[in-house]
Write a structure and sequence with these properties.
About 20% of the residues lie in helices and about 25% in strands. The protein has 16 helices and 41 strands.
Length: about 850
């Protein structure tokens, strides 16, 4: 008789119940093994907790001190045989083998053999009963701060930046940041708001402080004295409310030794978003869309990633839809990691998880896992994406840059910059705006900035303000004379050809030396720089013209239009890993025009990339991403030149004693001269030679960069972004290194397209995160009829695009125009006339 024989009816588990347990990690909290105290055995009966894979079943083995119960129909129970309690699942109720009133029944195993029980009792005599297990404390989560204006730039400058994932840095003498915090409904409001922060050792605590304003509550100012590792700064009774809270933080930081622009960068405070916020009970988040998104934000701030569980290879459509929705709704794009229901967990706490299973219906439900995580269980049919409308909160509209009106003045206030105040010794402020996609001026037209500004009358000598447009300085203004008030309107004209269609930026960069530079800055009572929102920019109109490059397509790109071409689709898991980072991050920057498409492939599929007339060798494109350099100066790649053999001496002969020796080589030279002269009148040859020379002249005159194959052969990178087909400007291609981090590449592309002066048709992402671009030099295209009102501007654009080509065409037009006049003069001249 098998001592561990059990009843089949008692242990029958339905497949549906098991799938639910695997997906949600829910169910009973433990499996309890209960031997009698005198029969404990180290090899047959477990007397301590036996951990299980929490991810797989959500069940955890734990000790129990309950006394075993006997039943009339199971005499083995009176003999203290082990008892195993399993969770109550479908198919396990209503059997004679289950007893007790607990949530899961009690399954009785057959009694052990007598010999085994005796030996176990002898070995267990010296063992003591295990101590009762401690009741775990109620789990708490930190609801983190979330940047209100999107992810700050990675590059450190004065103000807010994010040099490391999840770490906000506030740099400069005065810097501020705006955060949001979602607060679930709890029995009582949190007693404190925690900011986990640290400051540079250059910060002087006695003259530095941090000011926190929560919603409409009065601001609270605390000392800024955390100069070592991250330490919590606790704000008592912060006045938080259920729902979304608005939190503004401003730091005032004084350098302990120096004063000046360099000192501005040396004073900073960092806030760890993952551990800053308020602690709430883990079960306070509701099991609905709002609670799930709040858990996603908490998980993203903690680890920057969220796990997607699924073993079905047809989950790609569902994963893409989830990615796009989370990217728009979660505040900032979390990174996705894939897992299986049967993977062993690593024990790290998780707040949110997504489980995708194939089903005969499309449904989205929410459950709570064994560790407290809110699990979104997505059921989908073959190839169908779930519908999140009505289940998850509607995502906010993507933030877009305001457009500047062409032909009239557009104020800074209309561009959402009502006032600019600078109080750092190095200060920079950007004013972004958008121009229409068909705006193009390449000649000498002028745009104008009308500036209303003022500055303090106590700035040090050498203080200046640089006014820049798309990174080019158009005006330098001194700030060390006649300060103290708002100046009259200052007109700043600048070349309109430094603007481009799409996103542009006006930048104000202030530099104020220390006075003196080797001592602490004197506390100020006045603002350094003020720029009013009445300042404006006036941009002249242009005919409807476009210049094919990547910029317009990048501005129109959205996550739903990032695809993998059909020939490149193979492994669903790999495809999902490629697409999800882009789907979660990309939002269109402009509302104009149709959305562009980004095709993502790996090097083995580069044959699908259209290269137009660029002459790109696909082998070279593959080598850029594999790190193999092509040396075009190598003798192996040079044209093969067959050396001429030394000619044998021409034979000579004499026919008479009085004649000189005849050299046949001389005759050959004479014969060779005739074809040379004949070639001067060979019209087909002349035409072919002329065409070849014109093409070389055209390439020299119009191409902005060298041959693409040569340019690429000297570079390596993580990814290549290109648009090489002028007939399809909205179709972008991204070729990525197989081992590249797709989350990192998506972030870099998002930063690249926000650059105000992106131009070119191909860009290589280097391993250091920088971009190098190549321009095909394609001619502008006119998108409206040529009329008397626009012909001057159109010709000016073409002349600026290629001055040599335009000059050559003008001379050709003049020559063609002179031929009829010459024919007329010759034909009308009277016979015999000398005039």
């Amino acid at each position: 008789m098998n001592p561990f024989r059990t009843s089949g009816a008692a242990l029958r588990l339905s497949s549906l119940a098991l799938a639910a347990a695997l997906a949600t990690q829910a169910g009973a909290q433990s499996i309890t093994l209960q031997p009698a105290p005198q029969q404990q055995s180290t090899d047959r009966v477990a007397s301590a907790a036996v951990p299980m894979a929490d991810r797989g079943t959500g069940l955890t083995a734990a000790p129990s001190n309950e006394a075993p119960q006997a039943t009339p129909d199971r005499p083995g129970a009176a003999d203290n045989v082990p008892i195993i309690r399993l969770p109550a699942m479908p198919g396990m109720s209503g059997t004679p083998e289950t007893t007790g009133s607990t949530g899961g029944g009690t399954v009785m195993l057959d009694a052990l053999p007598v010999a085994d029980r005796a030996s176990i009792g002898m070995r267990a005599a010296n063992h003591t009963q295990p101590a009762p297990a401690e009741i775990p404390r109620k789990a708490e989560w930190v609801m983190p701060l979330m940047p209100a204006d999107g992810i700050p730039p990675r590059q450190v400058s004065t103000g807010a930046s994010m040099p490391q994932p999840g770490i906000i840095r506030l740099t400069g003498e005065i810097a501020e940041a705006h955060f949001l915090l979602d607060m679930p409904a709890t029995e009582e409001n949190p007693a404190e708001l925690v900011l986990n922060l640290r400051s540079s050792v250059n910060v002087l605590p006695d003259a530095s402080s941090i000011t926190v304003r929560v919603n409409d509550q009065p601001p609270v100012t605390l000392p800024l004295d955390k100069l070592g590792p991250f330490e919590p700064l606790r704000l008592r009774n912060p006045g938080l409310q259920t729902g979304r809270n608005d939190i503004r933080i401003e730091v005032t930081q004084a350098h302990r030794i120096y004063c000046g622009p360099d000192a501005s960068f040396d004073t900073w405070t960092e806030i760890d978003l993952g551990s800053s916020g308020v602690s709430v009970p883990a079960d306070s988040l509701p099991l609905n869309g709002d609670g799930f998104l709040a858990a996603v934000r908490a998980q993203t701030a903690l680890t920057r990633s969220i796990e997607v569980l699924g073993d079905d290879e047809e989950n790609l459509a569902a994963i893409e839809e989830i990615s796009r929705y989370l990217g728009a709704s979660a505040g900032w794009a979390p990174r996705i990691k894939f897992g299986s229901f049967y993977d062993v967990g690593n024990g790290s706490p998780e707040r949110a998880r997504i489980a995708i299973i194939k089903s005969d219906r499309d449904a989205v439900t929410f459950r709570r896992g064994a560790q407290g995580a809110i699990v979104m269980l997505v059921e989908h049919t073959d190839g169908a994406a779930p519908d999140f409308s009505g289940i998850l909160p509607a995502p906010p509209a993507p933030a877009v840059v305001n457009a500047a009106q062409v032909g009239r003045a557009t104020t800074f206030a209309e561009l959402d910059v009502p006032l600019v105040i600078g109080n750092n010794h190095y200060f920079r402020k950007d004013v972004p705006f958008v121009l229409p996609d068909d705006w193009l001026l390449m000649a000498s037209q002028k745009a104008r900035i009308d500036l209303y500004y003022g500055y303090s009358n106590t700035l040090a000598e050498g203080s200046m303000l640089l006014v820049k447009v798309n990174g080019e300085t158009v005006q330098m203004l001194p700030l060390d004379v006649d300060g103290g008030d708002i100046k009259p309107r200052l007109e700043i004209p600048f070349p309109a050809n430094i603007l481009n269609a799409g996103i542009n930026r006006i930048s104000f960069e202030m530099i104020v030396p220390g006075d003196p530079a080797d001592l602490q800055c004197v506390p100020r009572a006045t603002d350094m720089l003020v720029i009013l929102g009445d300042s404006s920019i006036t941009i002249p109109g242009s005919p409807s013209m476009t210049r094919n490059d990547m910029r317009t397509a990048l501005d129109r790109m959205s996550g739903e239009n990032v695809i993998i071409p059909t020939p490149a689709r193979s492994d669903p898991d790999r495809d999902a890993a490629l697409l999800m980072p882009f789907a979660m991050r990309f939002q269109p920057l402009t509302r104009e025009g149709s959305a562009s498409v980004l095709n993502v492939i790996t090097p083995q599929f580069v044959d699908a990339v259209p290269t137009g007339d660029t002459g790109l060798k696909r082998r070279v494109l593959q080598q850029v991403l594999t790190g193999v350099q092509v040396n075009f100066e190598s003798p192996a790649l040079q044209p093969i030149v067959v050396p001429q053999k030394n000619a044998a001496p021409a034979p000579s002969f004499r026919l008479s004693m009085t004649n000189d020796t005849v050299d046949t080589a001389a005759g050959a030279d004479e014969d060779a001269a005739e074809p040379m002269l004949a070639g001067l009148f060979d019209l087909p040859n002349m035409w072919a030679t002329g065409v070849a020379q014109f093409e070389r002249l055209r390439d020299f005159a119009s191409a902005d960069d060298p041959d693409l194959t040569t340019w690429l052969a000297r570079r390596t990178g993580e990814a290549v972004l290109m648009q090489l087909d002028p007939e399809d400007p909205n179709n972008l291609w991204l070729v990525v290194r197989p081992t590249a981090d797709m989350n990192e590449i998506a972030e870099r592309i998002d930063e690249f397209r926000l650059d105000g002066h992106v131009k070119g048709n191909l860009a290589v992402l280097s391993s250091d995160g920088t971009w190098e671009t190549w321009n095909a030099g394609w001619h502008p295209r006119l998108a409206e009829p040529l009329e008397a009102g626009n012909i001057r501007t159109v010709l000016g654009n073409y002349a600026s695009w290629s001055p040599i080509t335009f000059t050559a065409l003008t001379l050709l037009l003049a020559l063609v125009s002179a031929v009829p006049a010459l024919i007329y003069v010759v034909s009308t001249r009277r016979k015999g006339s000398r005039t």
